């Protein structure tokens, strides 16, 4: 008999620094859409256990976790509608990850491009946690039997590995227990690029602050960063193919489209023939209009972090209600006595 799974969304963000426009457009904005769609149960998480796969100063980690929670709420995640918590408060994530460490193969992990990028040439010195990161991510998703995971393009390979782990577990134990989760990688902003290099992902850990818009940037900083963003000297084209080979131009057009809930084509139609000297101020105006309310709401929420802590505790309780029975059933399947 084919098992049916409740339509359920899981996704997470690492509290490894401040939120960027990439996290917002590639992830949080879409989390809000899926929450409000009404078709799914939605579970969203600050993945602090993932963050410590590279060194985190404890004080910064606490602050970043609370600020990330404030960012989720300010952007439209409603802690009543969605389950919102930090990963370490639901121990079932780490417990299922151990089982998946025993399911996943070393060869699978070694092929992960994020591992290769982050460990670099110094892989002997990278943490074991960084190597096992994708198994923990599979556990985050499958501990809720999540059917859909909205992520940016960079997480596609990890999602494929999650599907492989679920399939191998089901096959090894001869039971259709874990769903084969669908990645949801949609929209014009699945890969927001650095403002300084159109071939590099916008990232919170990029050493250059000018490479990204932070969700806490004020209007002046947003305007300055967009003004200084790398571009070329050609006008905006009159057709989409005219952006080929112009990564910085494409990136700014995509950002405009995503912020305005529009298509790239409609942005081209509106600005075709204009130089970046004319387009950038419009983009800056739009970015300030959309991001400033989120940033000021984040500051307001951060004034009383005890409220945030309560939301996280309550979210974790709700998370455990879903996760605990799935872990127990997994232990039964594997043969653990209890
Ligand atoms: N530039 C981006 N464009 C679109 N989506 C992005 N995401 C991150 N950057 C972009 C999406 O945000 C979600 C959470 O990502 P994460 O913080 O857990 O890890 P990450 O992808 O490694 O993000 P960063 O900013 O690059 O963090 P660091 O610098 O700490 O490694 C994911 O859905 C991701 O796709």
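^ structure tokens above, recovered residues below v
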């Amino acid at each position: 008999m084919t098992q049916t799974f409740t339509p359920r969304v899981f996704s997470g963000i690492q509290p490894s620094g401040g939120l960027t426009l990439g996290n917002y457009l590639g992830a949080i904005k879409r989390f809000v859409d899926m929450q409000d769609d009404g078709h799914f149960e939605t579970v969203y998480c600050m993945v602090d256990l993932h963050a410590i796969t590279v060194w985190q100063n404890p004080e910064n980690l606490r602050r970043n976790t609370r600020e990330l929670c404030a960012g989720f709420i300010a952007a439209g995640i409603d802690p009543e509608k969605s389950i919102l918590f930090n990963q370490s408060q639901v121990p079932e994530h780490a417990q299922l990850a151990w089982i998946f460490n025993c399911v996943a193969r070393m060869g699978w992990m070694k092929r992960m491009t994020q591992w290769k990028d982050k460990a670099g040439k110094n892989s002997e010195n990278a943490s074991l946690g960084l190597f096992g990161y994708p198994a923990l991510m599979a556990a985050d998703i499958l501990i809720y039997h999540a059917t859909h995971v909205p992520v940016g393009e960079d997480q596609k390979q990890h999602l494929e590995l999650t599907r492989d782990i679920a399939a191998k577990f089901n096959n090894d134990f001869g039971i259709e227990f874990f769903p084969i989760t669908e990645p949801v990688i949609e929209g014009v902003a699945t890969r927001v690029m650095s403002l300084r290099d159109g071939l590099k992902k916008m990232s919170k850990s990029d050493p250059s602050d000018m490479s990204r818009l932070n969700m806490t940037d004020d209007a002046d900083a947003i305007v300055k960063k967009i003004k200084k963003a790398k571009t070329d000297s050609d006008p905006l084209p009159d057709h989409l193919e005219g952006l080929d080979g112009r990564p910085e131009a494409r990136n700014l057009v995509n950002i405009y489209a995503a912020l305005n809930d529009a298509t790239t084509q409609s942005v081209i139609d509106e600005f075709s023939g204009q130089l970046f000297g004319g387009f950038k101020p419009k983009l800056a105006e739009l970015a300030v209009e959309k991001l400033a309310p989120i940033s000021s709401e984040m500051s307001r929420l951060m004034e009383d972090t005890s409220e945030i802590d309560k939301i996280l505790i309550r979210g974790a309780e709700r998370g455990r209600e879903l996760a605990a029975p799935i872990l127990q059933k997994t232990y039964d399947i594997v043969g653990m006595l209890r």
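The first helix runs from residue 21 to 37.
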